[in-house]
Amino acid sequence: MKIDIRSLTVDENVTFKDAFKITSRTLRTAFVLDKNHRFCGIITDGDIRRALMTSAKMEDPIKNYYNRDPVFIKDGKLNKQDVNPEEVYIIPVLNTDDRVIDYKTPKDLRRVAFVSGITGQDGAYLAYFLVKKGYTVVGGYRRTSNCSFEKLKRLNILDKIRLENFDITDLSSIMRIIEKCEPREIYNLAAQTFVQISFDEPYSTSMYTGLSVINFLEAIRLTDPSIKFYQASSSEMFGNTDQPKQSENTVFRPASPYAVAKLFGHLSTKNYRNSYNMFCASGILFNHESPLRGLEFVTRKITYNAAQIKLGLSKELRIGNLKAKRDWGYAYDYVKSMWLMLQQDEPDDYVIGTGRAYSVEQFIQKTFEYLNLDYKKYLTIDETYFRPADIECLTSHPEKAIKKLGWNPDVTLLDKLIKIMVDADLDYLQNKSEVKVEN
Ligand code: GDP
Question: Which of 12, 237, 296, 410 is deepest in the core (most CB within 10 A)?
Answer without folding.
Answer: 237
